Amino acid sequence: MNTLSPGPNTPQPRHVLIPRHVLIIDDESLILAVLSKQLELIGVNRITEATDGTMGLQKVRAQPPDLIICDINMRGTGGVAFVRDLRQMPAPACDIPVILLTADVEMPAACKDARLHVNGFLVKPVSTTALRRAIDLALA
Prior knowledge:
By secondary structure, this protein is α/β, with parallel strands linked by helices. The chain has helices spanning 29-42, 53-62, 79-88, 107-113, 128-139, and strands at residues 21-25, 46-50, 67-71, 98-102, 120-123.
């Protein structure tokens, strides 16, 4: 028997990178509610919401979060414009990790082609496991 392989009762490794403050930007109230609940389950202490990129930039100026999750397609200022504006802000705001959220499975490739500086992508609907994985990668 190989003593190095984990058994069925071996505890799973704990996630050590849990952001204290996350800003979610999405124009759909259901998505905001679901992501907020998932972030609470993960252990995020403070969740701020915005319904478009302009409001998101105001929230960043008021109190920069540790991580931003932003929808790409929104009414008003969308995710791509938000990220471009964010990256033009002075530090520390310009360095905040961003995960883009989309319902279009083809969108992440298009954003990478546009050389948009983001730290991850999530495709809706988002599972808590996928959210946790994206956060781990964005904060690594």
